[in-house]
Design brief:
single chain; 276 residues; alpha+beta; Arc Repressor Mutant, subunit A; Alpha-Beta Plaits; 3-stranded antiparallel beta sheet; 54% helix
Length: 276
């Protein structure tokens, strides 16, 4: 898996730094990210870019620089953490929600942004101008449409599917479930043997290198965090029988918990917060 430098920084802040006051010395960030294959120059470069984009704020104390999250970064990470660790599952009513739009070409950029947001909400594309979801996305669609200034061009309906396609076949047309399930399979095939090996070494866990646990836990989370955003969380009755979401989620939670204490020990050993 190719890791983006900015995504790596977000993962580090979301999983560690925001629980340690939210602010960290550049030198500590460099030490942590060097264990993940980033050079000092690359770390300084991505921090500078994220600061200029408004994702991070910088504070100088003497000759040292300290970085912390901005408000929009905190909101992004809070939403991501909820999706990863507290996914919402409910009973499906059997209704479908249809989002239809007729957005003029002069607002093409807003139209593209709406499509990306609909994908993020878990909606599937029935065609280029109609998206569907088994869940009530009305409030989210309204908020996004207002923010983009295209509310007058967007409509949402609640409907009942009367025919003529089997619901599972309909779902397969609107979502690429085969691709998502193959990603789940790759995750399970990679981390199940690693978990089994580390569980087998639990009696000698005191001698395990905390830095290795940090690296493994970071990669585990970094790879798993994509699933809540690509998986539409469809009702079980609409999913194929070999769907691997539950298996992948249980694997993630167990391995994540096993590595936590040692990983935190390593981070605490290099973490340097800013003075008042």
């Amino acid at each position: 898996m190719v890791l983006g430098a900015q995504d790596m920084v977000f993962t580090l802040y979301g999983d560690y730094i925001r629980y340690r006051g939210g602010e960290i010395w550049t030198g500590s960030l460099i030490q942590l990210l060097e264990h993940l294959g980033m050079s000092e120059q690359a770390v300084r470069s991505v921090l500078s870019r994220m600061w200029k984009k408004g994702w991070l704020q910088r504070r100088r104390v003497g000759r040292k620089s300290y970085y912390s999250l901005t408000e929009k970064s905190q909101e992004l990470l809070a939403t991501g953490a909820q999706r990863i660790f507290e996914p919402e599952d409910g009973e499906w009513s059997g209704d479908w929600y249809l989002v239809a739009y007729n957005i003029p070409e002069s607002k093409r950029q807003q139209r593209n942004k709406l499509r990306r947001q609909l994908t993020w909400m878990g909606c599937g594309a029935f065609n280029t101008a109609i998206w569907i979801s088994p869940w009530d996305v009305t409030d989210n669609v309204l908020e996004v449409s207002r923010r983009l200034g295209i509310e007058e061009f967007v409509q949402i309906f609640r409907a009942e599917h009367l025919g003529f396609t089997d619901p599972k076949e309909l779902v397969a047309r609107c979502w690429d479930l085969e691709r998502i399930n193959s990603q789940y399979a790759a995750f399970v095939n990679k981390y199940e043997p690693m978990l089994a090996s580390d569980k087998g070494a639990i009696e000698d866990w005191d001698h395990v290198d905390p830095a290795e646990c940090f690296t493994t836990r970071f990669m585990l989370l970094h790879e798993y965090r994509e699933f809540p955003f690509v998986d539409p969380h469809l009702p079980p009755e609409l999913l194929p029988s070999d769907w691997l979401r539950v298996r992948a989620a249980e694997l993630f939670k167990e391995y994540y918990a096993l590595l936590t204490a040692k990983a935190n020990q390593f981070v605490d050993s290099v973490f340097q917060e800013a003075p008042e």
